[in-house]
Amino acid sequence: MTTTTMTPNGTDRAAAVRAANGQPAPAQRMPMGIRVTKGPGAPAPTPAAPRDTAPTAPRGVEDLLRMAASSDLARTRHLGAKIAGLVKDLGARIEAEQAQRQERDAAEAKRRELAEVEAKLASQLAEVRQKLRGTRDSAASPSRGGRREGADQRAKIRAWAVNAGFEVAERGRISRQVVEAWATATGAEVTR
């Protein structure tokens, strides 16, 4: 068995001298702290020793934040405070989203209700318009006849005015003086 002299930084002195002279190392050795687990010539991995402690159960966010707040390390306390603030912000954001969702649902329900009322009112309005058309059509007949009578009367007034020597246009308005003269001469009433 050969003994190796180690330098203060943990390397083999003889290997360092060989490397300085440009000579290859007789056998490949792994530097300290590197462990090869696969590959040719790698030592078989040794199984880890069983732990004596039971596995820890998953903890809730509140437990972790409480543990972080009472930690001895300032970085852990700072990280716990930051996460607590984020959890608080997340809770507020979720509550705001739920409130907005409830408002949207209420507004949509109100829109549906108003649409139903609008449809009902439109139906009632259509019925009222239909009834009005029926009454207008029945009332329109005499009025149209009255209009026809008025047109006939105006034609008579024009004919009388021409025979009586008044100047009257074939169309348009008949002057009041001509109408009054005709009513006086014939004893008829004027309908307008």
Order of helices and strands: HHHH
The whole-number mean of residue pLDDT values reads 78
Round the Cα radius of gyration to an integer and report it: 56 Å
Helix/strand/pairing category: mainly alpha
Counted by DSSP, the helix tally is 4
Strand content: under 5%
Query: Mind summarizing the main beta sheet?
Result: none
Question: Globular, elongated, flat, extended or rod-shaped: what is the shape?
Answer: rod-shaped
pLDDT < 50 runs, ≥5 residues = none
The first-to-last residue Cα distance is: 143 Å
Can you give the helix content as a percent range? 55-70%
Describe the protein in words:
About 60% of the residues lie in helices and about 0% in strands. With about 190 residues, it is mostly helical. Helix 2 (about 60-70) crosses helix 3 (about 75-165). The longest helix has about 90 residues, at about 75-165. It is rod-shaped and about 160 Å long. The termini are far apart. The model has no long low-confidence stretch (mean pLDDT about 80).
Comma- or semicolon-separated keywords:
192 residues, 0% strand
List the helices and strands and how they pair.
Blueprint: H1 13-21, H2 61-69, H3 74-164, H4 176-186
